[in-house]
């Protein structure tokens, strides 16, 4: 049974839902025994981190198995390397990620990570694997990382994660194999639903929740686990749809007034996440809204930097009106 908060739940490669073509392509890479830089792109909740950890287990496994159907490598899950990785004590597996309390890594943290981790030789096997959250790294920090990717130890294998490929330096993208994580199908989410605890799914409409989730497993789990988040989603998705019918005056009065209900810290976190998700989904069907998506990302960055809520929301609504 899968827990709703599955961020720290370790799933083996063969346990991951859907995306069979992507998983086969990654297993083929492992088979080539090359040390590369991969860049996984996808919105929050799509499973970039889970996929990266599962791939890392195969890369570091000292007793790789062969899938009987595809003849491609899988982790054994029982060797010392696999056990160390799952216990978060593997000396050749390192992560550079932000926390909820500190969503942006400082230059000092990035330099320290590069200096202490990326120049070491492997301890247990023939490679070291790094998972790096690019959303938490500024452009200046990415430039430091670029030099490491270019001149670091040849035994290093980097897996970079980002919710937006345009926020990653073009020079890093050009040195990476880029993989866009597709959304899961409704069948995949129905399979996930069946594995969730009954106390989460009871008295909830399976069809409605899966429709709300839009192919995003993490989003589905959050909708089920947090009743306030679910209420915020229903309200904010309705407001989001109305944005496209309002003129500038309506945006700065009606929409702005409703958004002021999300000014406190927790509600603002809901607003940021839900509208990022809705804009991301909108852009999948109409590329014209990429500019609006970018305007919302800019608004979020400024709000997270303690910018004035009133000024940033108004600036976003004005920018949004120019897209309509």
Polypeptide structure, described:
By secondary structure, the chain is α/β, with parallel strands linked by helices. The protein has three domains: 20-180, Rossmann fold (3-Layer(aba) Sandwich); 186-227, no CATH class; 246-321. Helix content is 52%, strand content 9%. The chain has a five-stranded parallel beta sheet with strand order 4-5-6-1-7, sandwiched between helices. A two-stranded antiparallel sheet has the order 2-3. Strand 5 (128-133), helix 5 and strand 6 (156-162) form a beta-alpha-beta unit. The model is unreliable at 1-7 (pLDDT under 50).
Query: Uncertain segments of ≥5 residues (pLDDT<50)?
Result: 1-7
Percent of residues in helices: 40-55%
How do the strands line up in the largest sheet?
A: 4-5-6-1-7
CATH class of the largest domain: Alpha Beta
Oligomer: single chain
Sheet with the most strands, sense and barrel status: 5 strands, parallel
What order do the helices and strands follow? HEHEEHEHEHEHEHHHHHHHHH
Which structural class do you get from the secondary structure elements? alpha/beta
């Amino acid at each position: 049974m899968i827990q709703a908060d599955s961020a720290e739940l370790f799933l083996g490669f063969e346990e991951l839902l859907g995306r069979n073509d992507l998983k086969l392509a990654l297993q083929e890479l492992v088979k080539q025994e090359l040390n590369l830089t991969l860049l996984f792109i996808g919105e929050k909740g799509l499973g970039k981190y889970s996929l990266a950890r599962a791939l890392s287990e195969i890369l570091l496994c000292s007793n790789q198995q062969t899938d009987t159907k595809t003849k491609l490598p899988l982790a054994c899950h029982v060797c010392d390397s696999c056990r160390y990785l799952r216990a978060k004590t593997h000396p050749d597996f390192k992560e550079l990620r932000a926390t909820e309390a500190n969503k942006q890594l400082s230059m000092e943290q990035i330099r320290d990570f590069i200096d202490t981790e990326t120049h070491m030789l492997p301890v247990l096997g023939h490679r070291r694997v790094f998972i790096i959250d690019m959303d938490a790294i500024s452009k200046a920090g990415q430039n430091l990382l670029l030099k490491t990717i270019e001149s670091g130890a040849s035994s290093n294998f980097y897996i970079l994660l980002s919710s937006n490929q345009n926020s990653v330096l073009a020079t890093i993208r050009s040195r990476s194999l880029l993989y866009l994580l597709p959304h899961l199908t409704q069948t995949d989410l129905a399979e996930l639903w069946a594995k969730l605890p009954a106390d989460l799914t009871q008295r909830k409409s399976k069809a409605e929740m899966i429709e709300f989730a839009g192919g995003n497993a993490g989003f589905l789990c959050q909708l089920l686990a947090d009743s306030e988040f679910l209420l915020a989603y229903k309200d904010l998705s309705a407001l989001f749809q109305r944005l496209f019918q309002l003129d500038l005056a309506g945006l700065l009065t009606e929409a702005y007034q409703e958004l002021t209900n999300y000014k406190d810290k927790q509600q603002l976190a809901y607003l940021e996440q839900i509208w990022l998700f809705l804009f991301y989904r909108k852009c999948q069907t109409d590329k014209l809204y990429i500019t609006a998506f970018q305007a919302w990302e800019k608004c979020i960055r400024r709000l997270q930097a303690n910018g004035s809520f009133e000024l940033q929301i108004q600036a976003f609504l004005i920018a949004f009106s120019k897209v309509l």
